[in-house]
Amino acid sequence: HNDDNLSITEHLEKVFTSAIANAYPCFCNVRAIIAAVNVSSPFGDYQCNNAMGLSKKMKIEGIIKAARDIAVDIQKCIPESPIIEKLEVSSAGFINIFLSKKFAVRSLTNMLRDGVRPPRVLKQRVLVDFSSPNIAKQMHVGHLRSTIIGESICRLLEFLQHDVIRINHLGDWGTQFGMLIAHLEDCFPNFINESPPIGDLQEFYKESKKRFDSDDNFKKRAYNRVVTLQKGKTESIKAWQHICDVSRKEFQQIYDRLDVTIHERGESFYQSRMLKVVEFLRVKGLLEFDDGREIMWPDDSKSGIPLTIIKSDGGFTYDTSDMAAIRHRVEEDLATWIIYVVDSGQSTHFNAIFKAAKRCGILNSNVHRVDHVQFGLVLGEDGKKFKTRSGDTVKLADLLDEGMKYSLKQLQERGRDQILTPEELVEAQEAVAYGCIKYTDLSHNRISDYIFSFDKMLDDRGNTAVYLLYTYTRICSIARNSGDDFSNLGAILDTYNIKLDHKKEWKLAKTLLKLHDVLIQCARGLFLHYLCEFCYEVCVVFTEFYDDCYCIEKNKSGQIISVNHSRILLCEATAVVLRKCFHILGLKPVSKM
Ligand code: ARG
Predict the structure, then answer these.
(1) CA distance linking residue 163 with residue 358, whole number of Å
(2) What is the signed CA dihedral for 370, 327, 284, 277, rounded to 10 degrees?
(3) Which of 35, 132, 270, 300 has the fewest CB atoms within 10 Å around its CB?
(4) Reduced DSSP (H G I as helix, E B as strand, rest coil) percent helix, strand, coil of the chain, to 5
(5) Which residues form the Arginyl tRNA synthetase N-terminal domain (predicted)?
(6) How far does residue 45's CA lie from ligand 1's centre (Å)?
(7) Distance of alpha carbon 508 from alpha carbon 410, whole angstroms
(8) Neighbour count for residue 270 (Cβ, 10 Å)
(9) How confident is the model over 360-400, as pLDDT tens digits?
(10) Whose C-alpha lies nearest to ligand 1, atom 4?
(11) Beta strand 307-310 pairing with 263-264
C-alpha cells in the first residue's frame, strides 16, 4: 500500500488537506497543519490547527465565521480513515484527533515482521563532508564532533534511502608541507627507498617549525619544497606521501574504534581542479585584483569579506580549494545536496563559499541544497576550552582510552565483571565508553557548546547512553525469560496479537509510532538531538509500562507461572525501534550488560 510508509503526521496532513479543500474550495491551496500532542493528553493524540487561521482569512474577505464552526465543516469532510479512531472539535476550534488502536496494532505488527521501514522521502545524492582533520596536526575534539555528527547524519540519510557519499576533506595540502618535507630530507635521507620511522608526527612538526622560524637556509628550502610538491616532483611527492601515511594511520585507528566509515578525498585531490576553477572564474570576469592578490566577492553587492582565490605569491588558499571542491561535487559527483559538518567558527567561510558558488553558476538554488552543519565547542568541566590538566590539547586516542577506563570501573562497581564472560564484558565496556561519548555529543543541540564530563556521561539516570543501553538490556532479558523464540517472530505473530487495552500499553504504542515523524524532523534541519530525546522518551515510557503491566508473572520462589505474550511482543517492538535509533546514533546495542 502506497501510504504505508507515510509518517502519521504526513498521513493526517494528507487527509486534512483534502478535507479543507473539500469544505472550502476557495482555500484549496491551504496545507493542513498537524501537531503531535503529548502522549498522555486526554484531548487526543494529534491536532489540526487550521480553523483559527482560516477564520482570520475569511474575516479579511468580510466573512465572519467562528473557528469552531469552520472546524466542524472540515471535520464533516474527513472521510472514513483507518488511522483515525474519532475526532473532537474543541470550543477554540482545534480538531482533536484520536489515533485508531487497530491501526497502531497493524503498524507495530508490520514493523515486527519487516523491521522499521524508512519513511518516504525524495531520494537525493547527498555528499557529506565530515571529520576532515589536518595532516601532521592533532585531530582535536572539534574534529571528534564533526566525526560523530557526520557519521550519524550519514546513517540517518542512508536509512532514508538517500544515496550518500561520505567524504573526508583531509587537510593534506598547503605550505606547512614545505618545512615537513625539508625536515624529512634531513632526518631520513633514505626516505625514497624505505619508509621513514616517524614515531610522533606532532613532535616532528614542532621540530620542523622551530627550524623554519630560526634557520633562513632551511626556510628557503622549505619554500622551495612547496613549489616542487605542487609541481609534482617525484621526490617531494614521495616525502609528502610518507608524512600523510603516518597521520592517516592514526586517524584510521580513531575511525575503527568509533565505527566510522569515510572516504578520503583531501585538499590535494583538487590541485589540478583549482587551476581549472580559477580559469572558470576568470573567464566569467569574477576575479578582481586587490593588493597583489586576486579575490572574488561572494555576491554582486560586493559587501562582506571577499574570497582570496590567488594569494600575492601566486598560491591557492582554503577558499580556492573549497571552490574547486564544490564544483567537483556538483558537476562530477552530481550531488544535489552537499553537507559540510564543520565547527561554527567557519560559518563566514561557508556562507561566502555558498554565495560565491551561486554567483558563478555552480549552484542552482532550484536544484541544489547546501548546508553548513555547524556545531559549538567542547568545554572542560571548568567551562573553559577543553584541555588536559597540564594545559595541552587532548589527544583523541587518550580520550577514548580514558572512556574505556571509566566504563570498566562502572561495570565493576556494579559487579558486572562477575556475571559477564570476558568477551561480554569487553563488549559492554566498549558500548558504554564509545556510546556515552557519542551520545553526549549528539544529545545536545549541536549549535551549543557542551561540557565534557565522564561522570555526567556515565550517569545511569536521565538522558544518557548508559540509561538507554541498560533499558535495552532489560528488554532483552525480558525476552529471554519469556521463552519466546524471537528468531521465529513470524510464528509468534501468527499465534499472538499485540493488545493495547491497558493505558500504559497504549501510551507506549503511540510513543513508538512517532519514530517516522522524528526521523523526518531530524533530517529536515540535520539535528540529531531530536532522535536522542525520542529514545529517552521511549525508554521512560517503556519503564512506566513495565512497572504497571506484568509481562512475566513469577511465583514466590521465582518460577514463571505465566507469560503475557502480547506484552512480550510490545517489548520486542520497543527493542526494534531502539535498535534502529541506536544504529543511527552509533550506539552498539548489547543484550547483556
Ligand atoms: N580541515 C579543516 C579544518 O580542520 C576542515 C575542512 C572542512 N571541509 C571543507 N570542505 N572545508 O578546519
Answers:
(1) 23
(2) 140
(3) 300
(4) 55, 10, 35
(5) 10-99
(6) 44
(7) 30
(8) 23
(9) 999 999 999 999 999 999 999 999 988 887 888 888 999 99
(10) 133
(11) unpaired
Contacts of residue 87, defined as CB under 8 A and 6 or more positions apart, other chains included, come to 75, 78, 95, 96, 97, 98
The C-alpha cell at 522 is 531530524
Q: Is the CB of 139 under 6 A from ligand 1?
A: no
Give the residue, by CA position, lying nearest to ligand 1 atom 5.
Answer: 132
ipTM of the complex: 0.99
Exposed, middle or buried: residue 154 (CB in 10 Å: 0-12, 13-18, 19+)?
Answer: buried
* CB contact burial 579-592 (16+ within 10 A = b; e otherwise): ebbbbbbbbbbbee
Q: Is 431 in the pocket of ligand 1 (CB under 6 A)?
A: no
Nearest to 138, CA basis, from 222, 205, 210, 209 = 205
Query: Distance (Å, rounded) from C-alpha 584 to C-alpha 468?
Result: 14
- Listed residue (185, 260, 255) closest to 585, CA to CA: 260
Pocket test for ligand 1, best of 132, 146, 176, 347 (most atoms within 8 A of CB): 132
Is the CB of 169 inside a 6 Å radius of any atom of ligand 1?
yes
Assess whether the C-beta atom of 322 lies below 6 angstroms from ligand 1. yes
From the CA of 166, how far away is ligand 1's center (Å)? 14
Nine-digit cell string for 66? 467562528
Ligand 1 neighbour 129 (Cβ under 6 A): yes
Q: Which residue from 551, 543, 547 is spatially nearest to 567, judged by alpha carbons? A: 551
| Single-letter code of the amino acid located at 391 | G
Give the number of the atom of ligand 1 that is nearest the alpha carbon of residue 318: 11
Domains of the chain: 2-99 (3.30.1360.70), 130-172+174-261 (3.40.50.620), 459-585 (1.10.730.10)
User: If you average pLDDT over residues 54-65, what whole number do you get?
Assistant: 95
pLDDT, tens only, 215-268? 999 999 999 999 999 899 999 999 999 999 999 999 999 999 999 999 999 999
Q: Is the pLDDT of residue 138 over 80?
A: no
Residue type, 497: N
In DSSP terms, 307 is beta-bridged to 296
- Ligand 1 atom having least distance to the Cα of 340: 8
Ligand 1 center–CA 130 separation, angstroms: 8
| Residue 560: how many other CB atoms lie within 10 Å | 12
